[in-house]
């Protein structure tokens, strides 16, 4: 039997709000405001069934001039990032749950049955497959030497980028109850950083898997296993010498990336990762609050509470704004200076679950139904 239990997003939102009521509160209605900026579609393309029926978070990936996306049934598509024109597409015979990683001439995806599949960036031809211990829910990552994947049972596995042979494995103890999902490992030339279901962050040597440091971000509290969940499911953010990380029912923290020493932390419950820009760290709380925190001191700069319970994606810094998407498929733009709403566009009526990707003046948004749109500021 599995050593973990899956918890749905609605339960996460309810727990994140700390409500004791048996009736879940509805999402906040959309607030009326005077738009100061608008987004227009540059192009749109459908990527199969999108996220599918399971609670997948299949995130596209940019590498050079190419944009890669995948759907839950195994379709992988390579596109020109500027025009959306398709360079190649393949249909794998496996349902995907972890996608997409790209780099080192490779496109990498993970499957529900624990396979890592690596394709050639040029034409989509399959290079190798490797079996790991359990389902892969986050995109595999590479530094050009190894492909690192984090499995649902909290193992980190490094595979040789050329052959797929296992180079090393790191095993962490798994709590009794965890959220279904993992953060995406951050892989540099020398180090691998990963957030664990236990509320800890680890740094490993990229070439050998030897642990370099470990730091606890959140301490389990409460009587029930649900109350004691402190998973780090959001992506870690490496910015300069700092590593920023948020945990569910825990903290938002800044760590020294080299030593792991804690620079600051503040109470935050989030199941998505932070973003950075204009000297701030931005985080979407589990209850829908969007907050900006000073990068250096960790004090709150502003909070926007108009999107409560709208199941927000991780934020992304975009031009002078912070972009988040919600369960109804709206993309909201907030001013980085004070958090006020300045723009909004709907991209997918089935919602958006994965964070937008920002590059220059373009915002790429992958909706749950499979529509992938490139939006530009107007």
From TrEMBL:
Superkingdom in the source lineage: Bacteria
Subcellular location(s) of the protein: Cell outer membrane
Membrane topology: Lipid-anchor
Keyword Methyltransferase on entry: no
Pfam short name (any one): PQQ_2
Main location class: membrane
Domain Pyrrolo-quinoline quinone repeat: 73-304
Assigned keywords, A-Z: Cell outer membrane, Lipoprotein, Membrane, Palmitate, Signal
UniProt keyword Ribosomal protein present: no
One GO BP annotation of this record: protein insertion into membrane
PROSITE patterns xrefs: PROKAR_LIPOPROTEIN
UniProt GO cellular component terms: cell outer membrane
Task performed by this protein: Part of the outer membrane protein assembly complex, which is involved in assembly and insertion of beta-barrel proteins into the outer membrane.
Family that this chain belongs to: Belongs to the BamB family.
Complex and partners: Part of the Bam complex.
Name the record gives this protein: Outer membrane protein assembly factor BamB
Species of provenance: Halopseudomonas phragmitis
């Amino acid at each position: 039997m599995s050593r973990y239990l899956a918890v749905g997003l609605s339960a996460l939102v309810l727990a994140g709000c700390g409500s004791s009521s048996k009736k879940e509160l509805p999402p906040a209605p959309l607030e009326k405001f005077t738009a100061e900026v608008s987004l227009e579609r540059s192009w749109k393309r459908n990527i199969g069934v999108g996220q599918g029926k399971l609670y997948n978070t299949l995130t596209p990936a940019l590498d050079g001039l190419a944009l890669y996306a995948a759907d839950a049934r195994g379709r992988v598509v390579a596109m020109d990032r500027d025009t959306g024109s398709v360079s190649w597409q393949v249909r794998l015979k496996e349902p995907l749950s972890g996608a997409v990683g790209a780099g080192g001439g490779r496109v990498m995806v993970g499957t529900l049955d624990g396979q890592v599949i690596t394709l050639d960036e040029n034409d989509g031809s399959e290079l190798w497959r490797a079996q790991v211990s359990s389902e892969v829910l986050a995109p595999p990552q590479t530094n050009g030497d190894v492909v690192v994947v984090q499995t649902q049972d909290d193992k980190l596995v490094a595979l040789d980028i050329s052959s797929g042979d296992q180079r090393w494995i790191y095993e962490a103890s798994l709590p009794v109850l965890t959220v279904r999902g993992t953060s995406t490992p951050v892989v540099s030339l020398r180090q691998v950083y990963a957030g664990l279901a236990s509320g800890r962050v680890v740094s490993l040597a990229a070439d050998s898997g030897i642990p370099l440091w470990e730091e606890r971000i959140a301490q389990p509290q409460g009587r029930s296993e649900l109350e004691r969940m402190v998973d780090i499911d959001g992506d870690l953010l490496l910015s300069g010498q700092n590593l920023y990380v948020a945990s569910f029912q825990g903290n938002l923290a800044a760590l020294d990336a080299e030593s792991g020493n804690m620079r600051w932390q503040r109470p935050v419950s989030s199941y998505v990762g932070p973003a950075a820009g204009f000297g701030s760290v931005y985080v979407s709380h589990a209850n829908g609050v969007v907050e900006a925190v000073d990068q250096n001191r960790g004090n709150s700069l502003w909070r926007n509470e108009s999107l409560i319970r709208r199941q927000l994606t991780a934020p992304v810094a975009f031009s002078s704004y912070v972009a988040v998407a919600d369960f109804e498929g709206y993309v909201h733009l907030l001013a980085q200076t004070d958090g006020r709403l300045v723009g909004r566009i709907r991209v997918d009526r089935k919602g958006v679950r994965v964070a937008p990707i920002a590059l220059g003046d373009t915002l790429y948004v992958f909706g749950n139904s499979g529509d992938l749109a490139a939006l530009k500021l107007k």
